[in-house]
Amino acid sequence: MSARRGPVTPVGIDELLERVRAGYTRVDAQEAYAAWSAGALLVDIRYQALRERDGLIPGALVVERNELEWRLDPTGSHRAAEATGHDLRVVVICNEGYASSLAAASLHALGLHRATDLTGGFQAWKSAGLPVVPGSEPPTAAPRP
């Protein structure tokens, strides 16, 4: 039997985002690229229609948001091969940098203490002129600089 908690005080999404983002340091597009170049795992959580419309980041692991925790938990039975340990540096990327903040906080709760997200999301990456391939191409591992 689980312990019953008291009533939860409602919080708006803006306050929730502020709270979770205070728990880690977010990165901009250039910092995400540098982290990837140094071995970090980029994880694209955008849904398929956005990936098809806007393109893909070569070398990023595509994991839709509803599967993220199962695929990145290094102790889970459904983990991705890339989920090698709790010390893994992960940069979560959504479309504009909102859902990825909540996703990064969820990864922290799983013990992935180096997880972060990309401020501005995929749109910031693309605007920075960083590598993007058409969304119709299957994601492939791009050589790291």
Automatic annotation (TrEMBL):
Highest rank taxon of the organism: Bacteria
Domain Rhodanese: 38-134
Pfam families reported for this sequence: Rhodanese
PANTHER family xrefs: THIOSULFATE SULFURTRANSFERASE RDL2, MITOCHONDRIAL-RELATED, THIOSULFATE SULFURTRANSFERASE_RHODANESE-LIKE DOMAIN-CONTAINING PROTEIN 3
Protein name from the UniProt record: Rhodanese-like domain-containing protein
Source organism of the structure: Streptomyces yangpuensis
